[in-house]
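Example record

Each entry pairs one chain with its bound ligand, copper (II) ion.
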Amino acid sequence: MAVFWAALAPQMGRAQEAGNPAAETMSVGEADARAPNVADDSLPPEEAAEGQTTDPAVGADAYQPLSPEWIKGQPESGALGFQKQYSDIGEYGLWMHNVVLLPIITVIVLLVLALLLWVIARYNRRANNDPSRTSHNTLIEVIWTVLPVVILFIIAVPSITLLVRQYDSPPEDALTVKVTGYQWYWGYSYPDNGGFEVISNMLEDGEALDRGLPPKLAVDNRMVVPAGEPIRIQTTGADVIHSFAVPSLWFKLDAVPGRLNERELTIREPGIYYGQCSELCGVRHGFMPIAIEALPRPQFEAWVRAQGGTIGEEAEEADMAEPADLQEPESSVEGAPGAGAPPTELDSPAADAEV
Ligand SMILES: [Cu+2]
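Structure tokens for the complex follow.
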């Protein structure tokens, strides 16, 4: 395992820093805002905080997790088609589906169905006992060759445009969030903000319902990002291939061990957007949901400070400090909650908060 991590480290760019100093200063009511980082035990908070910020608790009071009425992207029971889109690229993709693909497919299907019915009714043996011996018809052959080519060209224009736009590089000053898929939870690290990592586990159904959140989608710590500005999402896997997918943001990117994938994401408005791991990754694949919380800039910065992170210039100074040790994935620790056994009451965030 150590060899694997050593090999992976250079490709993962900045070292992930462990520990969550702000957690110490926060009350039980703010359980949502703290990250029960797996490395908490191995590293004293003071050490983790070193060089990151002068006062990790600055702004800690200003951040409140968004309440359930802010949920915007989530599946609805009985719904058909795509979820409502909250990004420009999503709007374009949805337009391509609704205005380009669906009408063309519908017309083709109806035409073929009508032709079939006509042939069945008109040219069966009873109705047409003496079939024509015609074997070629140049006009018809030209039509059924050229017409599909024209249709494909018409589809190709918006299709290639969509493909290219989806892989536009984010601008240089975009905020970077590195998403790591673990068996079976997500880690979100913020290299531009001091490099802290937030660990995100699914909430128990009862706990989610108590908080008014959708079960199997709600998590203890959301991935918090600023709304209305480009974000550079990088994905990697710590153990096996996962896939980071949020339907209402038109976003899906594989998280592959030893690779760093990158895509831009701009969320138009503040809200909560749910997604799920979309690459079969093991027994708890279905229980590693994604919850993104998009906030206006000032609230996002308050959240960063509540996590012990840094903003702008401070972050550059923090760069000079020694990076903390790489975090061992939870699943490499024998008997760890993420390593196979379902979570118990003991490792639920609520239990942590009471201690
Ligand atoms: Cu997964």
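The domain at 68-73+82-123+141-319 is CATH 2.60.40.420 (Immunoglobulin-like).
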